[in-house]
Amino acid sequence: MRIIDLEVYDVRFPTSRNWAGSDAMNKDPDYSLAYVVLRTDDPLGLAGHGFTFTIGRGNELCVAGILSYKSLVVGQQVQDLIHNMKDFTRSLTNDSQLRWLGPEKGVIHLSAAAIINAVWDLYAKIEKKPLWKLLTDMSPSELVSAIDFRYITDYLTPDEATELLQQQASTRSQRERELLATGYPAYTTSAGWYGYSDAQIQQLVRAGIAQGWTHFKVKVGGDIEEDVRRVALVRKEIGPDRRLMLDANQVWDVQEAISAIRRFKPFDPWWMEEPTSPDDVLGYQTIAGQVAPVALAGGEHCQNRIVFKELLQLHAIQFCQVDACRLAGVNEVLAVMLMAAKAKVPVCPHAGGVGLPEYVQHLAMFDFIGISASLENRTLEYVDHLHEHFVNPAVVTNGHYQVPEVPGYSADLVLRSLEQYQFPNGPVWAATADGRL
User: Fold this and answer.
1) 306 and 238 inside one domain
2) Distance in angstroms (rounded) separating the CA atoms of residues 350 and 394
C-alpha cells in the first residue's frame, strides 16, 4: 500500500458566538482543525485521518505547514512508515530547512503532528483496532522503537522505558477488562468557561451533577475579586466532596500567580492549571514551592518532550497534561507519558478543544493499561460540544469515557461537517461578510 495524496482542509467552528471555549487569555476562540487525509492506493479506499487543533485565525498557517511536508509523505510505502515510526517522525522534524522554523515547536511542530497522527490512524485501521488497542497489543520493544529519545536520555533511556513497559505487560489484560467494564474517569470543563454568566454556570454545574460528574474545572485569570466570587459560587454548588480545578491559561507572572492561588486556597482547589508561561520551567518550580498543597497542572501548551522533561526533573508540575496535537503525534506523547511514569506524576491529558476528546481518550486508556497501571489521581478532560461532527464521537456516561471500539484514532470528520465548515468558502463562513459569526 502506498500513500498517493495528502489532502489538507481548513475547518473552523464558530464557538466564539456563544463563548464556548473562552478563557482569560483566549476570550473569543473559534475552535478549528487543520485536517489531513492521507489517501492510499488501497482498492477499498483506506485512508488515514488526522488533525491539529487551533482556535481560529492562524489555522491557515498550519495548513501551509502541513503542505510544506507533502513531498516527504506522498509516494511513501505505508508499511515502511508504520514499522519505522521513529524514523518517519524524524524525517519530518529533522528536515533541515523546515526544522529551522522550530525546531520541534510552534506551527511547524503542530503541522507535523497532524500528519503523524494521520499515519497512526491509518496504522490502527490496517490492524482493524482502535488506537488504544493497537498500542496495548504492541510489545515493549515495538513501542520503544517508535519513540525518538533524542534530548531526553539524560532522564529516560530506551532501556529504562522498556523496563517500565515490561513491568506492566503481564497484567495489561486485567486492566483492559476493567476499562471495558467501567470506562475512564473524566472531568468537565464545560460548566466553567470564562465568558459564561453566573446563571449559566449554576445551570451547567447542576446539570453536570445530575449527569454524574464529580470533577469540575473553572476558568480564572481576570479580575481577582471576580474570580474569587465565581470560584466560591462553583464550590458552593458542587459541595465539599467533589473536586474543583482552576485554570488561569498562562495570564499571570510568577508572583501574581502565587498571590492569586493563595486567594483560592479556602475553596480547596485540587489543581491550578497553567498559572504562568508554559515555557517558564523555573517559574513553575517557584510557584509550586510557594502554593502547596495546591498542585500545579501543565502541559497543554508544552511545546515538546524536552520541556516536559525539565518540568518533571524539577518537580515543577504535579499533573502532566499532554496535548495530542501540540506534541508531534502519538510517538512523542508516549515519550512524555513514560517520563511521567518515572517521575510518578499522573497524566491527565488536555482535551479542551474540538476533536481532542476523541484523540486523548485513546492515550489515557493506554497509559492506564500499558504504562501507569493506575487510575489514582487521574482524570481526563471533557468538553461537551462539537462531537456531532465526528463519525465516531467520544462517549461519556456517568462521568466516564466509554472505550472506543471502532478501528483508528477516532479522527474522521463527518463529510457534511467537513464541507459546511471549511474556511473561508464553506456555507457557514461564506454567509458572513467578515469571515466571523
Assistant:
1) yes
2) 14
pLDDT-derived band at 378, boundaries 50, 70, 90: very high
Residue 100 shares a structural domain with residue 211: no
**CATH number of the domain encompassing residue 120:** 3.30.390.10
Q: How many helices (H) and strands (E) does the chain have?
A: 19, 12
Give a yes or no: residue 433 inside a domain. no
- Known catalytic residues are 219, 350
Element (H, E) at 217: strand 215-219
Q: Are strands 243-247 and 269-273 parallel, antiparallel or unpaired?
A: parallel
**Domain span holding position 7:** 3-145
Picking from 8, 9, 65, 5, the residue whose alpha carbon sits closest to that of residue 429 is 9
**Which 3 state secondary structure label does DSSP give 34?**
strand
**Contact of 117 with 324, CB cutoff 8 Å:** yes
Q: Rounded CA gap, 201 and 352, in Å?
A: 17
Residue 38 in contact with residue 119, Cβ under 8 Å? yes
Does position 225 have pLDDT exceeding 70, yes or no?
A: yes
Domain total of the chain: 2
**pTM of the predicted model as reported, rounded to 2 decimal places:** 0.95
| Same domain assignment for residues 95 and 50 | yes
Cβ of 9: how many Cβ atoms within 10 Å? Answer: 20
- The CA distance from 5 to 240, in Å, is 54
Q: Nine-digit cell at 352? A: 479542551
For the chain, give the mean pLDDT.
95
SS3 content of the chain, % helix, strand, coil (to 5): 45, 15, 40
Per-residue pLDDT tens for 126-152?
A: 999 999 999 999 999 999 999 999 999
Other C-beta atoms within 10 Å of 240: how many? 9
Q: At 117, is the pLDDT very low, low, confident or very high (cuts 50, 70, 90)?
A: very high
CA distance 147 to 87: 9
Q: Please report, for the domain that includes residue 190, its CATH number.
A: 3.20.20.120
Q: In what order do the strands lie in the sheet with 32-40?
A: 3-12, 32-40, 47-54
Looking at the domain assignment, is residue 159 inside a domain?
Answer: no
Enumerate residues 6+ apart whose C-beta is below 8 A from 157.
Answer: 149
pLDDT in tens, 249-283: 999 999 999 999 999 999 999 999 999 999 999 99
Distance, C-alpha 404 to centroid of its chain: 17
